[in-house]
Prior knowledge:
Blueprint: E1 2-10, E2 22-29, E3 34-39, H1 40-48, E4 52-56, E5 63-70, E6 76-80
Parallel strand pairs: 1-4
Antiparallel strand pairs: 1-2, 2-3, 4-5, 5-6
Amino acid sequence: MYIQITCINKDNGNHENPYVAIRHLGWYNPSTNERGKSTRLDIYNYIKKGNQAFVVDRQDGSRVYLETRTSSKGTKYVRTIPNDTGRDNLLSLPECP
Length: 97
């Protein structure tokens, strides 16, 4: 199963790692037409269970998948798998309502 990440909400303030600053991620399930918003940890656990989440690259329309990471301080987060572009596909998403 997979979901498309469509928007993000970040915590306020400056952060050492911008990915850790993401609080919620909005998503869309193309197979069920369901939409929702989940915490960073919920999406982390969703991917860890073998599911996939992706962001659609706004410039070329390709899928850029997310992967799980843990910061040096133990914070679990997700980020897009690095690709050929210098763009940050996840952090460039709009804010969720």
